[in-house]
Amino acid sequence: MQSILLVDPHQDVAIPLQSAIRAVLGPEWELCFANSGNAAWAMVQKSPFDVVVVNWSMPDMPGSELLFKIMHRNPETIRIAFSDQRDEGAMMRSLGAAHQHLVKPLAPAALRDSLSRVIMLRSLLSNSRLERLVANVLSLPSVPDLYLELLKELRSKEPSVSRIGEIVMRDIGMCTKLLQFANSAFFGHASTVTDPAEAVAFLGLENVKGLVLSLQIFSLYERSKFKNFSFAELWSHSWGTATIARQLAEFEGSNQAEANEAFIAGLLHDVGKLVLATGLQSTFESALALQAKENIPFWQAEQQTIGCTHAEVGGYLLGLWGFPPDVVEAAAFHHVPSKSRVDKFGPLAAVHVANVLHHAQARGTAESQLDFNFLSRIGMSDRFDIWKKEISGSAESQ
Q1: 350 and 240, same structural domain?
Q2: pTM of the predicted structure, to 2 decimals
Q3: Cα–Cα distances in Å, from 193 out to 176, 190, 260?
Q4: Residues 271 and 164 in one domain
Q5: CATH code, domain carrying 253
Q6: Coil, helix or strand for 54?
Q7: Half-sphere exposure (CA, 13 Å, Cβ side) for 354?
Q8: Apex CA 234: angle with CA 233 and CA 240, to 5°?
Q9: Are residues 176 and 312 in the same domain?
Q10: Do 107 and 82 touch, CB atoms closer than 8 A?
């Protein structure tokens, strides 16, 4: 039995929200309710919950305090907060405590959609150890040199939005966190923010300074700890995959928003490697050793040593952080898209093909990793050679 806890002191708000939650629950889910922070904490101490939805403003205990308590006691719990859109301070404080931050007045449909995606995410990871690891991720590792470069720019007399965006774009960890913040429902942006410079301009320099300087959301890795794994190579591959994915989307007639989403999906498709490399270092290195020994794709080596792949881990993290469903699916299924329910060309198809093409270009790996069953399902089994020619032509003309 899995469980959701809704915490809200206002009966007029709680009743419709409970109805909305019940609308997405299957028989294996139990809904519990608490009308105060103290009551909720007492319930959590008796038994952990899979998901908690907490009103940020409670008379007896701040929502931030309750969520941090839950995070430290049960890090695997998925934590969703909702508060007044005008309270930017609450949003800033919630980044470490909540995976997602929704806006009051909280429409039942918005909560229903958010919970539907969260519940579906849980099918990606059947390993409770990995669920706990991912749910406890507050930030992703960043390159020290780039982090220091960002600090220098932010502390300059006249920080440049474009310059900050350019620095962030070169680091997957910083890019992921900044886009998570910019695309939060809290800020109510009309469309998905896909460019770091746009995110900086939208959030404002003061908010970005607060994120980077005050909250220290970017953790730093030590180069010496990762002898068999290159963060620079990961960024290069992610950037190359993102560029090709956007080209493919544009070639197939996608509009600008869809092409931008394909780019972001490509840029973030391997974030799961950052989670595993820093959270399960020895196991991750065992997968690298197995890949080298048996000359198999890395995701297959992960499956044998970890029990899942960086794709599922990355999709789970991006879903927890509230990224668009298409971006989450592209990360989660980019190696085997036929396991998804997608039945048309979109970010998943673009990223899958782009990933194969970029690996083939960079490492000379076999194109046999292409999922032709998926391409047949979306009616594009005859497009690969055309795409390959288009991408090769674009590369030669640059």
Answers
A1: yes
A2: 0.76
A3: 11, 9, 9
A4: no
A5: 1.10.3210.10
A6: strand
A7: 35
A8: 85
A9: no
A10: no
Tell me the CA distances in angstroms from 155 to 142, 148, 160, 208, one per residue in order.
19, 11, 11, 11
Q: Which residue's entry shows tokens 């960079």? A: 362
pLDDT tens for each residue of the chain, 398 residues long: 678 898 988 877 778 778 877 777 777 788 899 999 999 999 999 999 988 988 888 889 888 889 889 988 887 788 888 776 555 655 565 566 777 777 766 667 777 777 777 777 766 666 667 777 787 776 676 766 777 788 788 878 888 888 888 888 777 777 887 887 777 655 555 567 777 778 887 777 777 776 666 444 455 555 546 667 777 788 889 889 999 999 999 999 999 888 988 998 998 999 999 888 888 888 888 999 999 899 888 999 999 998 889 999 999 888 888 788 888 899 999 999 998 888 899 999 999 999 999 988 776 655 668 899 999 999 998 898 899 888 876 655 55
SS3 content of the chain, % helix, strand, coil (to 5): 60, 10, 30
**Same domain membership, residue 255 and residue 173:** no
Structural element, H or E, at residue 311:
helix 310-320
Query: 84 has which bridge partners?
Result: 104
Q: Residue 244: what are its φ and ψ, rounded to 5°?
A: -65, -40
Nearest to 351, CA basis, from 247, 274, 265: 265
Cα angle vertex 397, ends 392, 398, to 5°?
100
Nearest to 182 by CA among 91, 55, 257, 87: 91
Rounded Cα gap, residues 80 and 370, in angstroms: 37
Same domain, 175 and 287: no
Q: State the Cα–Cα distance between residues 311 and 270, nearest whole angstrom.
A: 7
CATH of the domain at 106: 3.40.50.2300
Range of the domain at 181: 144-220
How far is the C-alpha of 6 from the C-alpha of 29, rounded, in Å?
13
- Distance between CA atoms of 61 and 41, rounded to whole angstroms? 10
- Sole residue written with tokens 């449909």: 109
